[in-house]
Every structure is written in structure tokens, then in C-alpha cells.
Amino acid sequence: MVSWSETARDDLRQIYNYIADDSKYYAGEVIDTIIEKTEPLDAFPEIGRVVPELMNENIREIFVYSYRIIYEIYPDKNISIQTIIHAKRDFNEAVNNKTS
User: Fold this and answer.
1) What CATH number does residue 36 fall under?
2) pTM, whole model, 2 decimals?
């Protein structure tokens, strides 16, 4: 099962709001595509690459547009989308800002 952390849901809202300043239609399309691209993770959890900054086999990422969708694979094979980070942002800075 693929679930979304509260942080990841907040990230989706922020992405939507940012894009919606220019186009609510396109904002909706981007969010729909991000969600759609995470659905195969349930059947193929290892489809994403290991996050290079962490080098943990259970923390992986897929790319959608210019976003890194970071997810964790749990021992019971459940998947949790942890966060969404724009690819141009520094990973460590972005993660530290979310946890502080």
C-alpha cells in the first residue's frame, strides 16, 4: 500500500499553490501526475533509485517533472511517500528545513 506522510501532503499543497498562481488547471495536472506516478510503487517498490545523499536501500526516489518524490519501503512492503523536493534544491538543506 502507498501512503502519504503529512509532510508529503503539505508539499503537494505547496506545489499546487505555487503553480496555481499562474494556472489552476496546470497546477491540478501536475498534482494528478505526481500522484499517478507513485501508484506503481505498490507493485514495484524498488522502481526508484536509492537516494544518493542517504545511500539507504529502503529510501528511494522517483522523478516527476522537476520534483524528487522521496519514499520509504518498510519491511512489510508498505510504501510511504515522505517528501517532495524540487530537483534544483539542495537535498540536505530542504530536508533540514522540513524537520526544523
Assistant:
1) 3.30.2310.20
2) 0.91
